Amino acid sequence: MATAVVQDPRVILEKRLQKGERHFTLNEAAAATGLFIDDARNALEQLIQKYVCRLQVTENGDLIYDFGKILLRRGEKTWAERRAEIGAALWRVFTVIYKAWIAVTLVVYFVIFVLILVALVLALSSRKNGKGRGLSLDFVGDLFASIFRWRTHTGTVLYRTDRRGYRYRQYAPKPSPINQNKKSFIASVYDFVFGPARVTIDPLQNQKEVAAYLRQQKGIVVATELSALAGWNFEQAETFLTDCLVRFQGEVKVSENGVLYGEFDDILRGVGQTEEGQIVYYWDEYEPEYQLAGNSAGRNLAIVFMNGFNLAFSVYMITTLVPSLLQARLPEEILPGFGSWIAAHATSAYVLLGWLPLIFSLLFFAIPLARWFKLQRAQHRRHHHNIRKRLFKAIFQQQGKAQTATAIQQAVNDHAREEKLPETVVAAALREIVLDLPGETLVSPEGEMLYAFPRVQRELAEVVHLRDQRRPEAALGGVILDSDN
């Protein structure tokens, strides 16, 4: 008889996952591996901490563990995510290099600034006996230094409203060193090419929001509430619930009515002196608008004129002026002061006075043009998401009960500052949401189409009952040991 080698239950189950068996109940895991049910349960709890997993409950109260089509470690990025990060890193490098190129190019205009400064000094000296206190020239240094300040915003977040009435967050632009109430010109140039920065989102914002929500809601949460907070479909919400169970050391439970929920005791305990995350429902924060430049029309026109002039003149240098100087017997007569140098340094002249500014000017126009096409798609997605947020609010305000598209349309349009949504748009968005939450379509006795979300209704009702029964102990008690004593 062969001697059995005792293996770690986690290792046994992990091998099954690696073979592609990733969708099963606890009892199936025990039967397939021969493990005790308690050992299989403990092994699954360890594997949930290691791999991304979605938890589901059947109508009969059975818990299903779904590790997905691809076994993915927690915190591990997919190839698509890694590719996006590489692309973003390359774009950041190019942005820095090109902004430096812009800055170096603009240094040429420093000569103009010096001439303006000389004119100002002469004007001030002619009025030295006047009553005025004179003009301070401190701003000139700031004006020149601003050329090399590549960050075009201050970090202060302001609220704006787009043309459809959706309120969103945006960074305040960096002011001009001359006029603090206006955006600086160099910031306008950078934003013309690369666009204004959008408000960044904390990568742990959802986790902090759920933690704050748990502390307010007696440490209990269901997948439906996660959908209400982040706008996820139920598959995403169930996966995120599992992540929260691992992250905050919660416990997965199934109620008597077959509703899966997370119960978190440890998250409730604390001294109450830390700043918690802000709870903002999905429909209470619209996506920021995608802007091509964020400048005034006059500022954009001035930038286009300047770069257009550089583009045209660089072409003129390559095609006409430099060849003429090379063929002339006396280049100085054609271009006093520079003709002889250009004739003696033809290659340098072509590169420095022709090809470099030509490439610079072409990129200067090509980058925002490419961004414009990309922004059209992004704006369409943003508009679609903002409409979805408004419908989510109408659905959750009615606890997922059956409503007609007309009733939902009236709910989102009444007293709204945002655009009025036609019924056709509402109906089209509802057909998508029915698949996400998921919901179902019914027909009323009057023959009207109804949109119902029974799982939303069931889970929201059940979680209220669960919280009413829960009496968590959040008090820490008195301090019995102090490291300072």
Written description of the protein model:
By secondary structure, the protein is mainly alpha-helical. It has 4 domains: 9-66, Arc Repressor Mutant, subunit A, CATH 1.10.10; 79-122 and 137-194, no CATH class; 205-284, Arc Repressor Mutant, subunit A (Orthogonal Bundle), CATH 1.10.10; 320-471, Arc Repressor Mutant, subunit A, CATH 1.10.10.10. Helices cover 54% and strands 10% of the residues. It has helices spanning 9-18, 26-33, 37-50, 79-107, 110-126, 138-145, 185-194, 205-216, 223-230, 234-247, 297-327, 331-334, 339-344, 346-397, 405-413, 423-436, 454-469, and strands spanning 23-25, 54-57, 63-66, 153-161, 167-173, 220-222, 251-254, 260-263, 403-404, 440-443, 449-452. The protein has a 3-stranded antiparallel β-sheet with strand order 1-3-2. A 3-stranded antiparallel β-sheet has the order 6-8-7, sandwiched between helices. A 3-stranded antiparallel β-sheet has the order 9-11-10. A hairpin with a 5-residue loop joins strand 4 (153-161) and strand 5. The longest helix is centred in the C-terminal third of the chain and has 52 residues, at 346-397. The chain is elongated. The two termini are 63 Å apart. 23% of the residues are buried. The model is unreliable at 109-114 and 131-148 (pLDDT under 50).
| Distance separating the two termini | 63 Å
Strand order of the largest sheet: 1-3-2
CATH topology heading of the largest domain: Arc Repressor Mutant, subunit A
Instruction: Write the H/E string, N to C.
Output: HEHHEEHHHEEHHEHHEEHHHHEHHEEH
- The tally of structural domains comes to 4
The major β-sheet equals: 3 strands, antiparallel
Could you name the CATH class of the largest domain? Mainly Alpha
Write down the overall geometry.
elongated
The CATH superfamily of the largest domain appears as Winged helix-like DNA-binding domain superfamily/Winged helix DNA-binding domain
Average pLDDT: 81
**Count of runs of 4 or more consecutive helical residues:** 17
In total, how many beta strands? Answer: 11
What is the beta-strand fraction? 5-15%
Q: Report low-confidence residues grouped into runs of 5 or more.
A: 109-114, 131-148
User: What would you call the structural class?
Assistant: mainly alpha
Shape-level CATH architecture of the largest domain: Orthogonal Bundle
Radius of gyration: 32 Å
